[in-house]
Specification:
113 residues; alpha+beta; 2 helices; 20% helix; globular
Length: 113
């Protein structure tokens, strides 16, 4: 525990982990899914050990990212941010190793010409 402004705050290694299987709610073809995922890659998505991951404090981004990276996911609660406004939870989401669903590989007909 560390002290910050008189409060006990758990250290960063006490994250809670859960596994979730997010369904394919968008039901997109390979090309459309590829471009949606490219948008995340260009902005908020990162990569860890060859797996896509997302860190955010915005709940809508958790659901939107999971919709484009459906399948088996790891979800961590990274922390709680307390400020003058409303508190927010830091979410860390990543693909589960070995799960290739929702990776948005291009379909044969979607190759550039």
């Amino acid at each position: 525990m560390s002290k910050k402004k008189g409060m006990d705050i758990p250290s960063a290694n006490t994250r809670d982990l859960c596994e979730a299987n997010f369904p394919d709610v968008l039901n997109l073809d390979g090309e459309a899914l590829h471009y949606l995922q490219a948008g995340w890659r260009a902005s908020d998505e990162g990569d860890k050990d060859g797996k896509p991951r997302m860190d955010t404090t915005k709940p809508w981004q958790v659901l939107a990212w999971a919709a484009t990276r459906y399948g088996s996911l790891y979800i961590y609660l990274g922390g709680l941010e307390i400020n003058k406004g409303k508190p927010s939870i830091e979410w860390l989401i990543s693909r589960r190793a070995g799960d290739s669903s929702g990776l948005g590989k291009r379909t044969r007909g979607s190759q550039s010409r």
